[in-house]
Amino acid sequence: MRFSTSFFPTLKEIPADATIPSHQLMLRAGLIRPLAAGIYSFLPLGYRAIKKAMTIIREEMDAIGGQEFHLPALNPIEVWEETDRLKAFGDTIFRLQNRPLVLAPTHEEVICFIARNEVRSYKNLPQIWYQIQTKFRNEARPRSGVLRGREFTMKDSYSLDATWEGLDHAYNLHAEAYKKIYSRSGLKFFIVGASSGAMGGTGSQEFMVESVAGEDTCVLCDHCGYAANLEVASSRMPPVSQAEGGKELEEIHTPNIRTIDQLAAFLSVSTERLAKSLVYRHNSKPVLILMAGNDQLNETKLQSALGGTVEPFSPTDLAQFTGADAGSIGPIGLQGFKVFADLRLKGAKNMISGANRNDYHLGNIDIERDVDVEAFIDVRTVNASEPCPDCAASLRIAQAIEVGHIFKLGTKYSDSMGATFLDETGSERPIIMGSYGIGVERIIAAHIEQHHDESGISWDPVLAPFEVHLIVVNTDNPELLGYSDRLYGDLVAAGLEVIYDDRTGVSPGFKFNDADLLGMPLQVIIGGKHFSAGNVELKVRRSGLRRVVAQSTVVGEVKKLLAELAAA
Ligand code: ATP
Ligand code: MG
Fold first, then answer.
1. What was the pLDDT predicted at 567?
2. Distance 191 CA to ligand 2 centre (A)
3. What pTM does this model have?
């Protein structure tokens, strides 16, 4: 493409509302333009990168036997009522005003709709169905450019199986395909076990790209490779206060003490000897969760450990059920509560906790002697530098971008929508499903997050909008311009994708800056003393490596260098 006649609008200034590198660079390099909050137009350069990501995805999905669909984005509201997901999505689902339709945020419903009408027998199974399509979600806080949009492109696939082994197989096929997709996309990624959350199902993993721009917090061990979302992570923190026990309970007057730190200071004891009580409703019944010292309760872990519905207690509940302020609640003598304790409290002795009377605490508590603990559960939030649960090395906490999510759904959707098949014995059974998503824009933004410098983007050849950025330094010299035009033709004829900066009246410095900003992997520079000596200069964008080659060998040298870059 000739720069002079193309639409490659670059910006010198960093747009004010863009705070992360990928957002800034996608705007500055002219890949995208905002239309409204969370809604972006992809311009030609940006869309070329998107199409390359989609090609990689298609190749790997086809390789595991996926069949490509194109499902409607407009869905009748009734199918969403069948699975009760209008409620689950709440305000996140866009509804039309003039028809009973929604804009689909995902496609389990439509898949089940097709399957229940078409899949009759185990002989029709297994199937893997996928599409690459626009999704709509009324995200509360669209941000970080295309990383969290209200309209975005997802590769979503669905596996349909007759058996649970079949589901495991389809799930593993997807996991392997995803690893290839992200590796080919030049991303350093890791996989974390995820919380199954509101989607239900029996297993799920997220594919994460480490980046300060990410919204997910993950716990990583650089020693053994342990990786988990903070929502499910655990560590090998030793249990607390196993020392001398066997003393008689004693009430301690603790006037105006509200926090664990105040209490520790007031009593001159370590926070590890204090047990903090938190109250929730579990399936609407009161439960008390006992935590060690300043350990933070992780509500997602609590939800997974208890199952059912877990809701916080309201202040009026608190007064009604306990008669004491939050700071004075404790596990002993409290009526009507089931008590769960964090694992670190197992075997703990000589502890101090609230006395269920304002301004008093109880001392000398031996947890297993004095507290009627329903179960010890791991519900604490992991902190940086704690020992890895697998190898005890020091854990690290990092932000990451979720670029994909794979899910064993089981029969949740096929049950509610009646998507069944007849098994070998002729009995009717629900189809066993999996669902698997990839954020296409997130691949591009994550790639830029991991591959940029202060001058701009530095693409891997595989996702680069063009492979070569050809720059004619001086368009006033007819001989030089004539050579450049011919070389452009030769490179294109050799099957290469080339941006040709043939602009007149633009300074060399300006052209070089644009080339570094757009970030194509290889720059071919024609001008100055090298041209007079019969040579051309090649510059590798990412490394800065420069190589001077004879004009007669340029096409071959360019191909060779690109192959080297692609293999790196
Ligand atoms: P998140 O937790 O980031 O909101 P999600 O769990 O809602 O993601 P899924 O429903 O599993 O995401 O969607 C599959 C994939 O689609 C995600 O892994 C992510 O890469 C991408 N995705 C989800 N929401 C958005 C969005 N608002 N903008 C861009 N990509 C998105
Ligand atoms: Mg979401």
1. 92
2. 18
3. 0.88
